[in-house]
TrEMBL record:
It comes from Gluconacetobacter diazotrophicus (strain ATCC 49037 / DSM 5601 / CCUG 37298 / CIP 103539 / LMG 7603 / PAl5). Belongs to the inorganic phosphate transporter (PiT) (TC 2.A.20) family. Pit subfamily. Pfam families: PHO4. This is Phosphate transporter. It is a multi-pass membrane protein. The keyword Cell membrane applies.
Length: 451
């Protein structure tokens, strides 16, 4: 299945199928993660459910539209260059189906049982699985097929951010309890009565912050997935950023600078591929460009330069030059048209408006031994919004679900009420199982479909 003609009927049908899968995944991501933003305002009766999810959906939409693309390409670069951009222009349907099918299935499975789960973990696990499957297909060493440095960087962010949410939200709740004496902050909801004015406003504000930051981070993930789809299936049209067309004339001179750096520092046995790509790029002419081949070569060289910039064997000056050339080459292949941003925002925003009830109940009543109070919800969401927004603008994908869940657990510990160990064990089990399950499923799918 790896080889069939671009623009054929089958390619077009595959494009439509993959587009449907990525849109459905982002829709599911929206309603799976909605509860993280709306749980507090709905549970405390600060907003009616319909109003809360519509407002949250709108803020998710705005977050996607105003965000960058650093998270998007931080994720897709987990794939090896030959999968990320096939040099012969063949569509990458097995990769796309393995990615979207695996992530979507696991998201739906955990949502059905009301377990807060990370869409980020689903996508990352599937991407790693595809890289593993590609290594098995080509009988390559895993060390040469998977960018482990990028994986560890992302996994560190995913592991540390919930701990920061736990400690930060617990500390904020502790401070609130000693500085703000209003009893309305510390009472669980009473019937259908909303909290008093300023408390209601605080909860709406924190809901807005989490929704916007969720869009700015998770929305970028779908932007990256959509770009994988259209580039993998229609490389001649979307392989290169049209806005950087004048830069193509400078690729040859940058490749000439990169070649001796790549030659001097072997990076996990990939020097030959990167050097061959640099040699081809050094003869690039703006009026004789094969988009798919140019994209593939650029990714090989960028991957090589990234390894040089991180190499301890390289001098400080060489690492700096490698990093600079890599930054100058990236914009030619790392971009997102306005309509891709809009599509991502629409799918995430619409998904936010449905499917929230199961996980709202979990966050409101099952994380701790007591029901959620306004102060606890506001503390968890305020800290969560700050962490998610910071990560979104530094290019690191984090889990909204795990940050908010950990934040609520932190406030329960801070209040002295304790946590529901049974529910936290279920959440932890989903957290532990997500990566190995999605890696195994995606690797198997890619190996079977790509064989």
């Amino acid at each position: 299945m790896l080889h069939f003609a671009p623009y054929s009927l089958f390619s077009i049908l595959a494009l439509l199928a993959c587009f449907l899968l990525v849109c459905v995944f982002e829709f599911v991501n929206g309603f799976h993660d909605t509860a993280n933003a709306v749980a507090t305002v709905i549970y405390t009766n600060s907003l009616k459910p319909r109003t809360a999810v519509v407002w949250s959906g709108l803020m998710n939409f705005v977050g996607v539209v105003l965000s960058g693309i650093s998270v998007a390409y931080g994720l897709v670069e987990l794939l090896p260059a030959d999968v990320l951009s096939p040099p012969n222009g063949d569509p990458a349907v097995p990769m796309l189906i393995s990615l979207f099918g695996t992530a979507l299935a696991w998201n739906l499975f955990t949502w059905w049982f009301g377990i807060p789960n990370s869409s980020s973990h689903c996508v990352i696990g599937a991407l790693i699985g595809i890289a593993v499957g590609d290594a098995l297909l080509h009988t390559r060493d895993l060390g040469n097929s998977v960018d482990w440095s990028q994986i560890w960087k992302i996994l560190r962010a995913l592991a540390i951010s919930p701990l920061l949410g736990l400690v930060g939200a617990g500390a904020l709740y502790f401070a609130l309890k000693h500085l703000v004496r209003d009893p309305a902050l510390y009472q669980p909801p009473q019937g259908d009565a909303p909290p008093r004015g300023w408390v209601k406003g605080l909860l709406i504000l924190t809901c807005t912050g989490v929704s916007f930051s969720h869009g700015s981070n998770d929305g970028q993930k779908s932007i990256g997935l959509i770009m994988l789809t259209i580039i993998g299936l229609l490389p001649a049209t979307f392989a290169l950023n049209p806005a950087t067309a004048p830069d193509i004339a400078h690729i040859a001179e940058r490749a000439a600078i990169a070649a001796p750096l790549l030659d001097a520092y072997d990076h996990d046995g990939l020097r030959a591929e990167a050097l061959a790509s640099a040699a081809r790029l050094s003869h690039t002419q703006a009026d004789h460009v094969v988009a798919s081949q140019l994209r593939a070569d650029l990714y090989e060289v960028v991957a090589g330069l990234k390894a040089v910039s991180a190499s301890r064997a390289a001098s400080g000056a060489d690492r700096a030059v490698a990093a600079r050339i890599g930054r100058e080459l990236r914009p030619t292949v790392e971009y997102a048209p306005w309509w891709v941003r809009l599509l991502s925002a629409l799918c995430l925003g619409i998904g936010t408006m449905v499917g929230y009830r199961r996980i709202v109940h979990t966050l409101g009543e099952k994380i701790g031994n007591t029901h959620l109070t306004p102060a606890q919800g506001a503390s968890a969401e305020l800290v969560g919004a700050g962490l998610i927004a910071t990560a979104g603008y530094t290019g690191l994908p984090v889990s909204t679900t795990h940050i908010i869940t950990a934040g609520i657990a932190g406030t329960m510990l801070g209040s002295g009420s304790g946590i529901n160990r049974g529910m936290l064990m279920k959440i932890a089990l989903a957290w532990i199982c997500t990566l190995p399950v999605t890696i195994a499923v995606a690797a198997s799918l890619f190996y079977v479909l790509g064989g």
